[in-house]
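Class prep. Write one:
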Amino acid sequence: MRAVVISRPGGPEVLEFRQIPDPVCGDEELLVDIRATALNRADLLQRRGLYPAPADAAQDIPGLEFAGEVETCGAGVEGFRPGDRVMGILGGGGCAQKVALHAGLCIAIPPELSSSPFDMLRHQDVEDERISGGE
């Protein structure tokens, strides 16, 4: 699979597309085909060598959040099945084509949302309005 890899600490020029091995799904994990990810401040600091990834996370692949489709479920996973659309958080690795992570770090994408990140942003705007409106 392909991933964006931090080749060394530095500016944007240190980001490279590389072929890396596919992740392996453990018993309590989901293997997810990533359809959308994001870069945030922590990713930018990691790229500069100023924010280490957690020990159990990809050390050289940025991306702390993702949305995608479940490819495989580990033997001990309940509540998800292949084909489910999910989103979740990671310690790193979201800028790859696939990720394996504990099922507890994922939630189902609401069916009313498309796979478009823009639809997710519009949904967030609605939620923000509800919260600021006193709910």
User: Anything to note?
Assistant: The helical segments are 41-47, 117-132. Residues 123-135 have pLDDT under 50 and may be disordered. The chain has one domain: 23-38+53-132.
